[in-house]
Amino acid sequence: MVDCLIGQGVTHAFGVPGESYLAVLDGLHARQDQIRFITCRQEGGAAFMAEAHGKLTGRPGVCMVTRGPGATNASIGVHTAFQDSTPMVLLVGDVASDCRDREAFQEVDYSSFFGPSTKGFAKRVERIDDADRIPEYVARAFATAMNGRPGPVVLVLPEDMLTRMTSASPLARVEPVQAWSDPGALRTLRELLLASRQPLVIAGGGGWTPQAAQALQRFAENWQLPVGNAFRFQDTFDNHHLLYAGDVGIGLNPALAARVKASDLIIAIGPRLGEMTTGSYTLIEAPRPKQKLVHIHASAEELNRVFQADLAINATMNAAARSLEVLAAPLSVPWQAWTAAANADYLANLQPQSLPGDIDMPALIGLVQRHLPADAVLTNGAGNFASWLHRFYRHHGLAKGFKTQLAPTVGAMGYGVPAGIAAAITTGRVAFTIAGDGDFLMNGQELATAVQHGAKSIIVLLNNGMYGTIRMHQEKQFPRHESGSRLNNPDFAALARAYGYAGVRISRTAQFEAELLAALARPEGTVIEVTLDPEVITTRGTLSAITQGALKKTL
Question: In the chain, which end has fewer C-beta atoms inside a 10 angstrom radius, N or C?
C-alpha cells in the first residue's frame, strides 16, 4: 500500500493512527524517507489538511483514519473536497473480513455513508479485499480523484487484507486526462462574444494550474473582458489586473451583483455556479438564466444539471484556457467602458467604512497585504470574520505561479487552522490564517500538530464573543432575540502558548503592525488575538444597523 502511494507521487499523508491499519503505519515507518506521515490530533483536522494539500498541489491529498469514529470524523473534510472539487483520497482501516456484517466493533457501511449511489459525497467508494489488487485500486482512486470534476475517493482497507503477502508491484503514476474544447463550440462562443455588448467572465472551481490561469488572463486581455472570481476562488484571476471585477460570492459588492444581472453574456469557466456564486440562484436564475450562458466545466455530468446553458463545453481548465487564449479577437470591442466600470466598481468597494470600536479591520488587512510576501498562502474557515479578508485582500494568485487562497466553498467552520498548517508543511511558504473565536475552537488543537512537525503558521484570531454569522442572521430575522450564539471563550493567547505557539492579544489597531512583523520574524507560529467590538459584525454594516434595517422591514 505504501509503495503504491509513493508510486503515485505522494509525499505527505495526514491522519490519526488507528489499530485497524497498523500494517500501513509500519509500512510508513519503513519508507519515512520518501513519504511523511503527519500525526494529527483529530480526524476532521487531518482531513482538512489533506484537502488543503490537494488544493495546493493539484494531486490528491491523502488522509488515513481508522474505522467508525475515525472515518465519520473525517467526513467533514471529504464533504469539503466534494463541494470544493478538490482531489483527495481517504484511506480507512476497517474491520477484518471474518467480522464483517455483524456490527463488529466500530463497523460502518462506507458505501452507504460516503457513496455516490446514495447521493453521498465521494466520487467513488471501494473496499480492497485482495492484496494482489492493491495497485489497481490505488491507481484507480487517484485517476478518479483527478479526472473530470476533481473530488474525493474513499478506499476501505480490511485489517486482515493489509497483512497478507503479495508479489504485486506499484503501477505507474497516473496523470489527469485533459478534455479539449470542441472546435465547433469555440466558433459558437466567438459568435456569442461578437454579438454581446455586456459580457462577463466568472472563473473558479477546481483543476486550475498556473499555466491555465495565465492562459485565462491572455484570453481576457485579447477580448478586454471583465473577469470575476467565483466564491472563494479569488486567486484564479489576478486581483490587481485592470480587467478584474471582484469576487462573486458572499457579501457581494452590490455594484457587481447588478452587473451580473445586467450582463447579456456570462462565460462561466470552471465553477459549478453554486448557491453562493449565484446569490441563491437569483443573480443567475435556474434553470434558464435571463443572460446568455456559456458554461465550461470539466465534468459532463455538471453541464446542464442546474442551469440550461446556451453553450455547454466539456473541457478541463488547462485545455479550455489554452483554447480560449487563441480565440481570434477583433481589433476593438464595444464593451470597453463596461469593462473599465467593472474594475472601477471593484476598486471603489475597497474603500473602508466607519466602524465602531478601536479595531479598524480594513486597516489590519491592509497591513497584512503590505507585509506578507506575494506567495503567502492565506486560509480561513467559515464565519463573518472571513468577509474582511475576502473583501480587502488582493490576491496575485495563480497567474503569478502560486496558489494563495485556501478557503472552503462548502462553508465548513474549523478549516482555516489545519489548512494553514498543511500549507506550511506542504510548501514551506508563509501561511497566514484568519479565524473567528468559534471557528478556531473547532480545530485549534492542531497547533500541537504544527509544533510537533516543525510547521509555522500565523493566525489572526478575531474574538467578538459570539458566532457572528448566526448572530447577524438572528438580527435580520428575529431582531433583538439573541439565542444560542453567545460564546464564553478561553484566554486564546495563553492557550496558544500552551501548545508551543507565541500568543499575544491586541485591542487597538496601532498595536497590530508590530505584532505581525514579530510573527513573521520568529521561528515558531503565532496567534494574534484581536478583541473585536461585537458591533463590528459585517463589512456591510453593524449589528445596530442590521437590527434597525430588520425592524424597518418588519414595520
Answer: C
**pLDDT one-digit tens code per residue, 390-420:** 999 999 989 999 999 999 999 999 999 999 9
pLDDT digits (tens, 9 = 90+) for 117-156: 667 789 999 999 999 999 999 999 999 999 999 999 999 9
**DSSP assignment letter at 85:** T
| pLDDT category of residue 555 using cuts at 50, 70 and 90 | very low
Give per-residue pLDDT as tens, 311-339: 999 999 999 999 999 999 999 999 999 99
Beta bridge partners of 92: 65, 156
3-class DSSP state of 299: coil
Q: State the burial class of residue 453 (Cβ atoms within 10 Å of its Cβ: 0-12, 13-18, 19+).
A: middle
User: Are 187 and 62 in a shared domain?
Assistant: no
Three-class DSSP category at 99? helix
The reply to whether 106 falls in a domain is yes
Q: Look at residues 378, 436, 439, 388 and name the one whose alpha carbon lies nearest to residue 412.
A: 439
Helix runs in 182-314, H state only = 183-195, 210-223, 254-262
Query: What span, in angstroms and rounded, lies between the C-alpha atoms of 334 and 195?
Result: 10
Collect all residues with Cβ–Cβ distance below 8 Å to 359 and sequence separation of at least 6.
507, 508, 509, 530, 531, 532, 533, 536
Q: How far apart are the first and last CA of the chain?
A: 65
* Sign of the alpha-carbon torsion through 311, 313, 283, 211: negative
Question: C-alpha cell of 488?
Answer: 464564553
Q: What is the CATH number of the domain that holds 421?
A: 3.40.50.970
Q: How far is CA 10 from CA 87, 410, 426, 434, in A?
A: 13, 25, 11, 28
Contact assessment for residue 124 and residue 110, using Cβ atoms and an 8 Å cutoff: no
Can you tell me the distance from the alpha carbon of 398 to that of 2, in angstroms, rounded to the nearest whole number?
31
Q: Is 29 exposed, middle or buried (0-12, 13-18, 19+ CB in 10 A)?
A: exposed
**Co-location of 22 and 159 in the same domain:** yes
SS3 374: coil
In a domain, 170, yes or no: no
Domain encompassing residue 93: 2-163
In a domain, 174, yes or no: no
Residue 66, classed as helix, strand or coil, is: coil
Neighbours of 490 (CB within 10 A): 12
Cα-to-chain-centroid distance, residue 56? 10
Residue 154 C-alpha cell reads as: 474513499
Residues 6+ apart with CB under 8 A from 438: 383, 413, 466, 467, 468, 487
Whole-number Cα distances in Å, 546 to 474, 475, 479? 10, 6, 9
